[in-house]
Each structure stands twice: as C-alpha cells, then as structure tokens.
Write a structure and sequence with these properties.
Shape: globular
Largest sheet: none
Number of helices: 7
Distance between the termini: 27 Å
Number of strands: 0
Helix content: over 70%
Order of helices and strands: HHHHHHH
Amino acid sequence: MIKKISYLVLSIITIIYTLWYMHFGSVFTNSGALSTIGLKHHTLFVIWGVLTFVSLAWGIITLYERYCKRRFYVPLVIASGVGMALTLCFDFDYDKMPDYYFHYAGSLAFSVVTGAAVFLLFALCYKKATVFKVLTFVTGALLIGDTVCLLIFKETSLIEAVPIIAGLVMLNIANLRRDKVEITR
C-alpha cells in the first residue's frame, strides 16, 4: 500500500508541476509549447522532464509487473527514457539545426513509445476487468484525438500535457484498484 500511495503522491506532484510550468507560456499557441518554454526556463524544463519520465515509467513498470508478467516493457521504458534524455539535452531551437532535430526526435520517441506502452498495458489486461476495457478505449481515443489536434494546431502545451496528465491519472486508477482475491480450500 505504501508503494501505491507513493506513486499517487509522485503523480500528483508531477501533474501540479506540469500545470504550473505551463503558465510560462500560452496554453493554446505554438509559442507556448513545453519545449519552447524550456528555451527560456531550461532548469525548470529539465525538472519537468525528469518528473514526467520517472512518474510514467514507475507506473508502467509497476503495472506490467503486477498484471502482465511480461518483460517486453523494458525496451519500451528504455526507449522512452532515451527519448526524454534527447529532449532535455538538446534545445528546441530552429536556429541550431542538429539540436532541433535531436530534440524533436527525442520528443517524438518519448511520446509515441510511452503512449504505446500505456495502451498496450491496458490492451493486454483487457479481459481481466471492466476497468481495463474502459482504460483501453479511453487511451486509444485520447492518443488518436491528441494526434489529430497536433496535426491541426501544431504543438501547444495543452496538447502536450493532456496525454501526460491523463496517462498519470489512468495509471493511478489501475494501480489503486483492488484485485479480486480468490479463496481456495
């Protein structure tokens, strides 16, 4: 129970920090994207990135070990971590082309791999409980909707933050649920 509460507290801290960090830019414009804010507030951006990665990775690892007993999440978490590291180490500055491409590739890798890991987790647990069926559909709809919004509106902190916050909430829903205990004689 201590691990579940610890994860919940870390997730709440990450969500609050993300919402606070977003206030440095316009939530609805491309100039307010999290990476763009990071150009002016690099240390705060690194703190956000580390908090976000650790929170999501902890939830993914915990739930895969609890429900799936499959180890294929390990390369997904590693790829997600490498993506976040590239995102944090290279600036989102179009004037510095190599940095821009590494940053963009890292951001894309982090987003896609983390989203896929969460979706696969819920899809693999689909038949275990109704909550996993709901979370599978919500995750799929959220990822598709976010991708469509990203293509239409470009990057904004709102478009970037919604799947992260939703992922943390959904991972906590799955983490805090009670498993049915089977009594055998």
